[in-house]
Amino acid sequence: YLTVSIEPLPPVVVGDAVTLKCNFKTDGKMREIVWYRVTDGGTIKQKIFTFDAMFSTNFSQMENYRKREDLVYQSTVRLPEVRISDNGPYECHVGIYDRATREKVVLASGNVFLNVMAPPTSISVLAADTPAPFSRYQAQNFTLVCVVSGGKPAPLVYFKRDGEPIEATPLPEPPAGAGSWAPRNLLHRDLDDTKVPKSLAAEGEPGAGQTLGTAEPPRGLAAGRDSVTESIPETVVSREFPRWVPMAEPIYYLRHTQAPVSDGTVEARATLTWTLNPQIDNEALFSCEVKHPALSMPMQSEVTLVAPKGPKITMTPTRARVGDTVRILVQGFQNEVFPEPLFTWTRVGSRLLDGSAEHDGKELVLERVPAELNGSMYRCTAQNPLGSTDTHTRLIVFENPNIPRGPEDSNGSLTGHCGFRLVLALTLTVILELT
């Protein structure tokens, strides 16, 4: 008789040592033990180890593995460092000689599944649809995306706000439209203090102004309501938020997606969406945490939502001359900004050098500046969904001694004199040819 059994294996982590143990009982004489790795749903069996009892030898067919397995004893194979590619079923085949004739071999087999887990290798949190503008006049949805890569099986992903778990409504399918499914717990548009004349709010006249004056100011506005006519610096964004922003707790929506990767791991994505409230969401700490059976403790990545403040602008060259190419660049801010800001350049009181009304990007390039731009003011607006801020810089253009100036040209550009010389030379050439 011949019976074969293989002890089941618990899930193992990449890099662990694994022992495949094949137990068998027989009263016959053993011929061989062969281990197979089964692939393609059982259609392909790759021989990985053989013990030949006739010659008392053993050898490996796993040349690509550089003989990673060692024969501990005749029915056991050890894999010192498993990989994700080792995941799958294995079979142990045992052969004995038939009692009646030594030319016949009786076979029996057993199988086991090796489940190889891999901990996630990376986790990151980013904002969807960035860069995006800031809106004072209507609510907008905001989405954080947590991307976890390298894990097997798929990890458990969840969000926290200021260290507290977020209770979110599961969202199995992507929203058809941002405005059709997201919560809109907004107050009436009449309560938008950006639409109420300051005279009505200050004098307390009946109507919308009186209602606005008696309403309790939302959090974040109380510090700046002493005077309606106060001067608000351009870099202060917390006082620009209108009163339609809801005071109720936000409603969060969470959606999970998974995508298999060619190396056998899974890329997991979790998206958290809610109606942004810049007053309470500014400087809020959001973290994405991951639990996985191959991790001894959760992985974490965190971001703090912050509106831009105090852009730092540099201009090169610092002493621009007529004909130079001037680059105006935003190098950074006084604070860490998230999500990525949207930069818009304009020229105060006029159009840009190329004739456009505005330019998007972190850098503004002025090709071959003329003398007319001397003293012109440029505004850079940096904004993200949490707020906006403006900063200005003035361009000073000096004369260029390398560029000749005509006597009739008062603005430093190349006109009249050069053109007059060219026309005069052409006229003299024509007269000489005629004579």
TrEMBL record:
Q: Which domain of life is it from?
A: Eukaryota
- Which terms under GO biological process does the entry name? heterophilic cell-cell adhesion via plasma membrane cell adhesion molecules; homophilic cell adhesion via plasma membrane adhesion molecules
The primary site where this protein sits is membrane
One family name in Pfam for this protein: V-set
Q: How does it sit in the membrane?
A: Lipid-anchor; GPI-anchor
Sorted UniProt keywords: Cell membrane, Disulfide bond, Glycoprotein, GPI-anchor, Immunoglobulin domain, Lipoprotein, Membrane, Postsynaptic cell membrane, Repeat, Signal, Synapse
Show where the Ig-like domain sits: 15-108, 311-396
InterPro entries noted in UniProt? Ig-like_dom, Ig-like_dom_sf, Ig-like_fold, Ig_sub, Ig_V-set, Nectin/Nectin-like
Residue ranges of the region described as Disordered: 199-228
What's this protein's function? Involved in synaptic inhibition in the brain. Selectively regulates inhibitory presynaptic differentiation through interacting with presynaptic NRXN2.
Query: What is the protein's name according to its record?
Result: Immunoglobulin superfamily member 21
Q: Which organism is it from?
A: Formicarius rufipectus
Native organism taxonomy: Eukaryota, Metazoa, Chordata, Craniata, Vertebrata
